[in-house]
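Tutorial sheet, problem 5. The two components below are modelled jointly, 406 residues in total.
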Amino acid sequence: MSNDFVVRMEHVKKTYNGYAKKINIFTDISFQLKRGEFVAVVGPTGCGKTTLINLIAGLDRPESGNIFVDGVNITKLDDNKVVELRGRKIGVVFQIHNLLPNLSVYENVELPLGIQGVNGEERKSRVNEALETANVSSYAQRKITTISVGERQMVAIARAIVTHPDIILMDEPTEYLDPFTTDMVLAFIKSSNILKGKTVLVTTHRSKVTKAAERVTALKKKLP
Amino acid sequence: MAFRNMTPIWLAVKDFQTTWFRVKLVIATIIAITADFAILFMLMNGWSNPIATALLLILASVGLSAALLHLTKRTFYEMGVFKALGASRGTIAASLFIKLFITGLVGSMIGVVIGVPIGLFFTAYISIPLPAGSFASMAPLEVLLSTVLSCILGVLVGALAGGLLTWERAKLHVSEILVNVK
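Model answer (structure tokens):
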């Protein structure tokens, strides 16, 4: 059974420190992602969509509960092992992109491979493949500051897929995009060969995205 | 595998590129601090005046460290992105140490090149009674080496402090780093 699920969260609790008291984001959440499925997570602002992505990617730690990524309980791993696992297995597209503004499009996409120690020739071919797949190769040498928000989104996607991860997590990838670019991003997610067989989780507010997904999960905001 | 060991250097180069504007400002600050240090060091008769020299060394080290730590602080966001993309704590701290050391070294060496001739000019043309063992009685090479060694010491202290600070800060979860910066 565990082999079917590439991500499994069991009874996870997550709180944040507020000004006066602790804010419970999740008190007891369990969630699974099947290998190869495209899932959309919807819910109002503040319900924990970004936190869900952060927990699965090991960008944040829960107070209690277990999170299995490809059979490995990441809550039991030390920080360096989580970082290493994330680098190999997970690609994250952040809501605010987190691209480095003074680097070119090419250099931003190259970063995860350089960090993993992938050598020159292989690195070059994989970066070019990701750039072409995301349709951003025509402005590969331009700095991030000189391209549009929609183009940045595609660069962020290229950076997330360049390591050929099994799981791709996208945090509201269409949030700041116009309808045309939203369609472009969705078409890419649905039809790209590089995403075939990958597990894709997208958080969103947009009905267009939920219609494109194979499964939709809703998070509810807990009233204080 | 061999390339993997070079990752901190590769990352330091990328970090230089992405923070180049801030690096330039820090280099300019370090040049000013080091040039002042070199001039004052020579006017105070260098090693022959141990108390003044010790005070000056402390001040210069604090100045260089502060400039380098400022750069460390301003590299917080990049650190979060590197960690999010799979860089370990050790790699991040090592790359920052390399970046700070090179920044400090370049800045201080330019400062020495500017400061030593000015200091030599002052000590040569201002008739201060100089005791034996002061710069007046030292060969120019000795003067240069003393100043360079003092500066390298200051830079090393600053780079080590920055590396250790980064090592500590890289303990934070990526979400905390990126949320704190944005």
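Marking note: The longest helix of chain A spans residues 120-133. Full credit if you identified this.
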